[in-house]
Amino acid sequence: MADPVGNNAGAQLKSYMERIENLQEEKKSYADDIREVFAEAKGNGFDTKAMRAVLKLRAQDKAERREQEAVVQTYATAIGFEW
Amino acid sequence: MADPVGNNAGAQLKSYMERIENLQEEKKSYADDIREVFAEAKGNGFDTKAMRAVLKLRAQDKAERREQEAVVQTYATAIGFEW
Amino acid sequence: MADPVGNNAGAQLKSYMERIENLQEEKKSYADDIREVFAEAKGNGFDTKAMRAVLKLRAQDKAERREQEAVVQTYATAIGFEW
Amino acid sequence: MADPVGNNAGAQLKSYMERIENLQEEKKSYADDIREVFAEAKGNGFDTKAMRAVLKLRAQDKAERREQEAVVQTYATAIGFEW
DNA sequence: AACGTTGAAATAGTTC
DNA sequence: GAACTATTTCAACGTT
């Protein structure tokens, strides 16, 4: 159904852009919610910076990190790099 | 209800973080959807960079747009650059 | 001289990595300088975003610029957006 | 010396932009050199992806990472998060 | 040589 | 309004 130069390309494009704009609105709504929760936590004396740090750590896919490190180890050792 | 140093601070904190993580998941889900739509559009031959440009134009206030454009014009002229 | 599995592969690899690290330092040094100039300009009241826009225009080929602009125009029109 | 609306603003701006463009050229030149070294290494059978991974690790300021982790530990423990 | 993936740069938003 | 963080955008890289 690719038709970027045909007659109905405009309609297709319009559809894509409307879908994106709607999704962006939803996304923004959740971003607002997140901001509110952080604000509430902060109002109750919590260190939001630390909270963000922990959340970020949790978000990382640990399995993937480990896998990469296996290869890395080999080369790091080869050049005499310790950590 | 603020008690970041009391006994139930941990529970409170945990609650905040769980709420945030859930919201972040939702948010991420919409971000993924957006990426997919762009990918689909690209697959159908559309220029996603141009799409992004138009979406940005729509999101910006018209006055703001004119203002920024005017500054760019001024600067370009000031250094003797024509386009 | 390729020998990634031989005995001196480590030495060779180490040499490559050292060369790269040195080059990266130089590169970073210039990136820092650029940032400083922008900061100085900003401190003197200039609109760095506009400066970046002009710099980008200068860097782009004129034909390429026109082409991209034309696509944006087309898309904007196609979805009924005027600016 | 701020004078973005005065008479010599143009000259000042031009000077900033020229300085930046020169620095960008230098920076780009080093980026090219880096790319060449990677290409050479690859041509000799080395895994450039792993090389990049190691280089990135080395670039991280370990001291800073440790410092952050101290704060993070406290909160991570509070919510029963292990890693 | 197009595609997806990744990393760096730039912009936007938030906090102080 | 200055600094920091987060997000978005852009370019490079390897892959098919």
Brief overview:
Chain A is mostly helical. Helices cover 77% and strands 0% of the residues of chain A.
Overview of the molecule:
4 copies of one chain form a homotetramer. Chain A is an all-alpha fold and 83 residues long. Chain A is 77% helix and 0% strand. The first copy, chain A, is flat and about 65 Å long. Chains in contact: A-B, A-C, A-D, B-C, B-D, C-D. The C-D interface holds C 1-5, 9, 12-13, 16-17, 19-21, 23-24, 26-27, 30-31, 33-34, 37-38, 40-41, 43-47, 51, 54-55, 58 and D 1-5, 12-13, 16-17, 19-21, 23-24, 26-27, 30-31, 33-34, 37-38, 40-41, 43-47, 51, 54-55, 58-59. The structure holds a DNA duplex (16 and 16 nucleotides).
